[in-house]
Amino acid sequence: MKNYILLILVCIALVNCKSESKSNDVAKSTIDKKVDSLLNLMTLEEKIGQMNQYNGFWDVTGPVPSEGDAAKKYEHLRKGWVGSMLNVRGVENVRKVQKVAVEESRLGIPLIIGFDVIHGYETQSPIPIAEAASWDLKAIQKSAQMAAKEAAAAGINWTFAPMVDVSRDARWGRVMEGAGEDVFLGSKIAVARVEGFQGKDLSNEETLSACAKHFAAYGFAESGKDYNTADIGISTLYNTVLPPFKAAKNAGVRTFMNSFNELNGIPATGDKFLQRDILKGEWAFDGFVVSDWGSIMEMMDHGYASDKKHAAALAANAGSDMDMESYAYVNELSGLVKEGIVSEEVINDAARRILKVKFELGLFENPYKYCDEKREKEVIGSKEMHDAALDMAKKSIVLLKNENNLLPLEKSGKKIALIGALASDKNSPLGSWRLAAKDNSAISVLEGMQKYPDNELTYAEGAAVVYGATNFVHEVNVNTKDTSKFKEAIQTAKNADVVVMVLGEVGFQSGEARSSANLGLPGVQQELLEAIYNVNKNIVLVLNNGRPLTITWADNHVPAIVEAWQLGSQAGNAIAEILYGDYNPSGKLPMTFPRSVGQVPIYYNPKNTGRPGPKKEVFWSHYQDESNAPLYPFGHGLSYTTFNYSNLKVSAASNEVKVSVTVTNTGKVVGKEVVQLYIRDIIASVTRPVKELKGFELISLKPSESKEITFTLTEKELGFFNNQGKYIVEPGEFKVFVGGSSVTSLETIFQYQ
Ligand code: NOJ
Q1: Which fold has domain 643-752?
Q2: CA of 324 to the centre of ligand 1 (A)
Q3: Which residues contact 383 (CB under 8 A, 6 or more apart)?
Q4: pLDDT at position 745, please?
């Protein structure tokens, strides 16, 4: 305690703590001065200590290194050789480690406590790709805000989110964790999430510092296999990969995480161009960069570093400020400084960045400010959290198909058969990345539907879910062989007016290291679907999944399909409200659904090529055995009402183009619609995609109501990065498309000068 008090006294003497609140700028420079004063007191080893992050003693989210024994971690905490811990959660546990850092180390510098708060803490909101399907930026921001509040009440002050990797390959398991395939939507969502997590004031104990990850191109893993090589050109890097990161930076994100992959031959963790030139140079990012788990030492396996010492030098010099679980900085950096391979300025810069964020969080004023048992009890799992999770879940659902208005279901007098192991599953809806959630705590679809008692509901599992699994074991799967429960399910279906089938992936079938070469319904579920269809065609298929699936057979046969992702703690309630029409679906796909795996990566905005089609002869860019078209395009999503688009108008001035359209609700119920605007730069000095989303607006319309929506396009929307990485705007002809999906209903041409 003595040391901690001493430190505070030093800080107070050197600067006036109270001036902090006056204005952001004053606060910033005040913090800079505090950081400098503190750095002056620190030994080289203590500065390196700030750059060292250890996993806690309970959960693990990566391979455990042999050095990771608890005794050593405590010893290092006491020496002031640890700047951060991850996976320490709960006030009691956080207090325990914070106490050692603050009260037993020489300078008493508090730890920053990191955790993967990806879609909630204990209360789970929908997985991020599901939230992205809402296209509702306010709701997404609120969801991040709720997650921050709950996690901060558990002692955490730093989340490793948002993941802002653009992902076009459904085989990659981590598509569940991002905002999908589009750079424009992804950038807007990145901002919403950063603002939600961080709030307006980082020192508020209900906010967390956020982390834009994984820098960069992690979503471009070859063949969708996690951790795999990314090899992309400058144009894709600047126009597709970097913009969501830049948007997060501009929104004030305080940390970045680099990535496991190599990019064009250089592991991102050791990439100077990415971290020093772009991020800290061109973008002037003044927060800090944390490595991914073990990614510094993995540079040896990449064939880039000869040993751990070499890896530490490469990473530090390239701008990776903090080492997550490689034990490379703590063991090697001081030697490297003494040998002159890493300069002391590199160490000072990294330590300065980390300390700055700690000051911003208010940890120096009160290192236990996130450790309030009373708040922990009140906030975690509270009604406020669950209400928000339910609201977000309803907004995330996408109605993919609804032939003959099979949905919504009538509320009484009907026999409903509910089939599928996932329908009663209380674990899967929690999705991947839900370390702090209580197992089996989600509301299942069965429970949700039981709240509508005036129908006769019968349930049959059909195909079993095999668990025997934790987050880190592969065996989790929907049973691959057992068809013994088909008979009962078929019997149940035979007698029903409508069959609701809940099929898809178990929660852990997507997420980190969960790449899939097959994208059909796992296990015997396709067989089950067809068997049920043979006896009752009135099927509503409810999908639970973390990635687009190739459900082409279902689309050809099943009349109604609802994309319900993994919707979190309130999943079953949200799904039931949608099925019974108490909530009108308004979600739109943030990722294209392929017809078959061979089309992947498939996305709505490829280049036109020199041989676009369709053509009668064979020589055009296509598959001979599959259509080029997706199963469901990006931006697709139906409602229980219908919308008409008309009156597309463009007025182009020299620096601004206004595009307006009238949208009318032509159905019988109130509904929300995401009005989408796309452009195409027809001829450019670097070829441009066939379509690019450049605006969207979520509107609500009563039956017969019309609204005129106006979009404004400026240089920000009309330009692109050339192959020198320079943003340019070229005058010329543009197409503009407006509608309710990327396959739009209206288009026209305008001239931009
Ligand atoms: C590895 C993942 O790639 C990263 O996203 C996560 O934040 C860390 N592990 C910590 O769990």
Answers
A1: Immunoglobulin-like (2.60.40)
A2: 9
A3: none
A4: 80
Known catalytic residue at 231: no
Report the nearest atom of ligand 1 relative to the CA of 62.
9
The tokens 């400084």 sit on which residue? 337
408-449 tens-digit pLDDT? 999 999 999 999 999 999 999 999 999 999 999 999 999 999
Residue 518, both tokens: 């097959």
DSSP reduced 3-state for 544: strand
Active-site residue, from 165, 182, 292, 425:
292
Helix (H) or strand (E) holding 301: helix 298-301
Residue spans per domain, the chain? 400-599, 643-752
H helix runs in 409-537, sequence order: 445-450, 486-494, 525-535
Q: What are phi and psi of 418, to 5 degrees?
A: -110, 125
Q: Which residues of the chain are modeled with pLDDT < 50? A: 1-21, 468-470, 472-476
Which secondary-structure segment (H or E) carries 727? strand 727-728
Mention the CATH class of domain 400-599: alpha beta
* pLDDT given for residue 466 in this prediction: 61
Residues 6+ apart with CB under 8 A from 224: 169, 170, 171, 172, 515, 516, 600, 601
Q: How far apart are the CA of 145 and the centre of ligand 1, in A?
A: 21
Closest CA to 416 of 526, 502, 531, 505: 502
Distance CA 625, CA 220 (A): 26
| Alpha carbons 474 and 477: distance in angstroms, whole number | 8
Q: Which of 324, 432, 434 to mutate to test the pocket of ligand 1 (most atoms within 8 A of CB)?
A: 324
Which atom number of ligand 1 is nearest to the Cα of residue 260? 3
Which residue bears the tokens 């990294």? Answer: 350
- Going from the Cα of 271 to the center of ligand 1, the distance in angstroms, rounded, reads 19
Closest Cα to atom 7, ligand 1: which residue? Answer: 160
